[in-house]
Design a protein that fits this description.
The chain is mainly alpha-helical and 444 residues long. It has 19 helices and six strands. Helix 12 runs antiparallel to helix 14.
Length: 444
């Protein structure tokens, strides 16, 4: 079958392609090749800046143009070369050497990939794709969602709501505050995420600059590499590595996103429960169907979709963060195939965020239901009454309220006020207790 959205094996490139196709700029085979070309060109030009050879201005302009105008056709040429070399990075090297021939700079082409191993390119190109995807797509997405949640929290800050602990009616809360719980959790984890650097490996075949040093033994290659990685690529160079980077910070990124995803998953389940409790209605869209059999259904499908995709994302992130930091001796190849999949869990994560946003836009607050649940649960102010009675040094107030309320079928306003009337406390205290309702006992 010819590949298209209907024949793609992965739903990322099939069913959800329209929502996620922008991620191909970072995680497709084309993107990886383009970033490799960019790193090779930047390295070549940096060698020129450091006076190992002179790069004529027209050659510099031409090579930068190769990067800026890199096309599917260029990537196809490289893939054709790879059929012969059976080595993807070597095919990139040959592509750039051919480019130097085209701009009459063939005498400089052996400086392409000078002293490097393929992982010096992969372990800079891939961290760059990851960094750009995080900075340009992922972080804006979660920050926008957090901002939306904050606005909802402000809108609902004075809406009293029955709380539930262990699924049972508990001291009432405010809907806005419950949303702020997730806003704060996200803020904390985003801050932790921001502390994790984007790192790269750049140091030759086994991390010791062997080839560089043998060619130029008096040159400070560590300083050279640090400057190149930090100033030209915007990454942080790992100082002591094997043939590959140790992936510890990349694993930390995966674990951080996994924690953020878990917060979103928790949020989805709470909102699903509120919808199930009829605290929220959902906007209907003309032509949409909730059930093939039950015409009345308006299902919380966006939150369910998000929950499913968050689960897939976290499962893959779990494997990535556990596998990548482990490599036999100075290098085995298991990281290579695994690294090609880092875009997949991020895609499922982005898809989840889009689903949550879509679901939030459909919610319609059903205040009458929230009010009714509070009216039907006067038992929840038992905590308030026994606490005030403690203040008044009333004997055994907890036990008195326990006797009144625990396990009883119907404790309404009348039952509570009859209990208050029978207390041996001052009229002022009785008045104070009667002013407490499920609607105003919401704390701070």
């Amino acid at each position: 079958m010819e590949l298209n959205q209907l024949t793609a094996v992965s739903p990322i490139d099939g069913r959800y392609r329209k929502q996620l196709e922008h991620l191909a700029n970072y995680f497709s085979e084309f993107a990886l090749i383009r970033y490799r070309v960019m790193v090779e060109v930047e390295y070549f030009l940096f060698l020129g800046e450091k006076k190992f050879f002179k790069v004529p201005a027209p050659v510099r302009k031409y090579l930068l143009g190769v990067v800026a105008n890199f096309s599917i056709g260029d990537a196809t040429v490289i893939k054709e070369t790879e059929k012969t070399t059976n080595h993807d990075v070597k095919a990139v090297e040959y592509f750039l050497k051919a480019a130097l021939d085209k701009c009459a700079a063939g005498d400089l082409k052996e400086w392409v990939h000078f002293g490097l191993t393929s992982q010096d390119i992969n372990n800079t190109a891939i961290p760059l794709t990851w960094k750009h995807a995080i900075e340009h797509d992922y972080l804006p997405a979660i920050l926008n969602l957090q901002a939306n949640l904050l606005q909802l929290a402000k809108s609902w800050q004075n809406i009293p709501m029955l709380a539930r602990t262990h699924g049972q009616a508990a001291s009432p809360t405010r809907l806005g505050k419950e949303i702020l719980v997730f806003v704060e959790r996200l803020e904390n984890q985003i801050q932790l995420f921001s502390y994790i650097p984007f790192t790269a490996k750049f140091g030759g075949a086994t991390g010791n600059f062997n080839a560089h040093h043998v060619a130029y033994p008096k040159y400070d290659w560590v300083k050279f590499a640090n400057e190149f990685i930090e100033t030209k690529l915007g990454l942080q160079r790992q100082q002591y590595t094997t043939q590959i980077e140790h992936y510890d910070t990349l694993a930390a990124h995966f674990d951080a996103i996994k924690r953020i995803n878990t917060i979103f998953l928790d949020f989805c389940r709470d909102i699903w429960s509120y919808v199930s409790s009829d605290y929220f209605k959902q906007k209907t869209i003309k032509g949409e169907i909730g059930s093939s059999a039950m015409p009345h259904k308006v299902n919380p499908i966006d939150f369910e979709n998000a929950e499913g995709n968050l689960g897939i994302a976290n499962a893959v992130f779990e494997h990535l963060s556990a596998k990548l930091p482990v490599s036999r001796l100075q290098r085995d190849l298991t990281d290579s195939t695994v690294l090609r999949n880092i875009g997949m869990p991020l895609a499922h994560t982005i898809l989840s965020i889009k689903s949550i946003e879509k679901g939030l836009n459909k919610l319609v607050l059903n205040e009458s239901k929230l009010k009714a649940d509070l009216d039907n649960n006067w038992v929840i102010i038992a905590e308030a009454i026994q606490t005030v009675l403690r203040r008044e040094r009333f004997p055994n107030p907890y036990e008195a309220l326990k006797e009144l309320t625990r396990g009883k079928v119907a404790i309404d306003k009348k039952a509570i006020h009859n209990f208050i009337n029978g207390l041996k406390v001052s009229p002022q205290v009785k008045k104070e207790l009667k002013q407490i309702t499920p609607h105003n006992y919401t704390g701070v």
